[in-house]
Amino acid sequence: MSSVKPYNSQDKSKKQEVAEMFDNISSRYDFLNRFLSLGIDVSWRKKTVKAVLKTQAEYVLDVATGTADLAIMMAVSGVPKVTGADLSAGMLRVGEQKVQSRNLSAKINLIQADSEKLPFEDNRFDAATVAFGVRNFEHPVQGLSEIFRVLKPGSTLFVLEFSKPEHFPFKQIYNFYFRFILPVWGKFISGDNAAYTYLPESVNAFPHGEEFIKLMHEAGFKNGSQRKLTFGIASLYSASK
């Protein structure tokens, strides 16, 4: 799997560049998400939350939590305790403001942490989620292995990620939008030349479907499955420890 980086600098790792990119766009990230996905990303997160609630998890780890959208949605929907972890201090600042404004500080704890070196003991969480984040891991299997380590036996990981529609006409519409529309509007609104060019490039380079399920299994998980959302634009993966 090729390692796509936002800025392609010689002296910075993908991890450093991803953190820098999200710091740069953090203040406009939520608006861009709604605008560029036409609001569909909200329905994808709702489906993820519904899947988590079925497990009756009491303590959930949300990796690559960003501005805490999914963490907040889980807490509001009834998950008793959520810890959100992210590399980007800028995204976490926005997330913390949202958590406080909704009076959810007692249920949600946000920390700055590297997905590949999670600061938690083994077997701590009842479930874990990653929404549009595994694609940004520098070493995906290592990140997934860390999530596996901190999950309790029998618990479930849910990964929400972009995938690639395979059928006409959605494949053609999706490819056109991702290549020509999204980068232009993303650059215009965010002010970051690279961020929304990186998005389609990283999606294109990242394994999806059975290939991603193999990565989950390689990290130690079992019973991996894929649920395609909105004609295959996104997928909700799950696997158990």
Q: Descriptors for this entry?
A:
45% helix, alpha/beta, single chain, 9 helices, globular, 241 residues, 7-stranded mixed sheet, Rossmann fold
Structure description:
- The protein is α/β, with parallel strands linked by helices and 241 residues long.
- The chain has a domain at 33-164 and 207-240: Vaccinia Virus protein VP39 (Rossmann fold, 3-Layer(aba) Sandwich), CATH 3.40.50.
- Helices cover 45% and strands 21% of the residues.
- It has helices at residues 14-25, 29-36, 40-54, 69-77, 89-101, 140-150, 170-190, 195-205, 210-218, and strands at residues 59-63, 81-86, 108-112, 125-131, 151-162, 222-229, 234-240.
- It has a seven-stranded mixed sheet, sandwiched between helices.
- Strand 2, helix 5 (89-101) and strand 3 form a beta-alpha-beta unit.
- The longest helix is centred in the C-terminal third of the chain and has 21 residues, at 170-190.
- It is globular.
- The two termini are 24 Å apart.
